[in-house]
């Protein structure tokens, strides 16, 4: 079973769109370790798809490398 839970923000391991996890479960024959994801495309149209957990990762926002210098 995957470590993903409803409400998590994920993306494909290859990158791409941020998606919200809507459900996790057995979606055989597509995937026995499936993650149903929901997102909005560039035209603000709701999309949803079931992905195998092995091709997803938790989304981590890029950090902004600001450096504070105190004098």
Description:
This is DUF2158 domain-containing protein. The chain has 71 residues and is an all-beta fold. It has one domain. The chain contains no helices and 5 strands. It has strands spanning 9-12, 15-27, 31-40, 46-52, 56-58. A 5-stranded antiparallel sheet has the order 4-3-2-1-5, with no helix packed on it. A hairpin with a 3-residue loop joins strand 2 and strand 3 (31-40). The radius of gyration is 16 Å and the shape is elongated.
Helices, strands, pairings?
Elements: E1 9-12, E2 15-27, E3 31-40, E4 46-52, E5 56-58
Antiparallel strand pairs: 1-2, 1-5, 2-3, 3-4
Number of strands: 5
Q: Determine Rg (CA atoms, Å).
A: 16 Å
How many structurally independent domains? 1
The run of helices and strands is: EEEEE
How would you summarize this macromolecular structure in one to three sentences?
This protein has 71 residues and is mainly beta. It has one domain.
List keywords for this structure.
71 residues, mainly beta, five-stranded antiparallel β-sheet, 52% strand, elongated, DUF2158, DUF2158 domain-containing protein
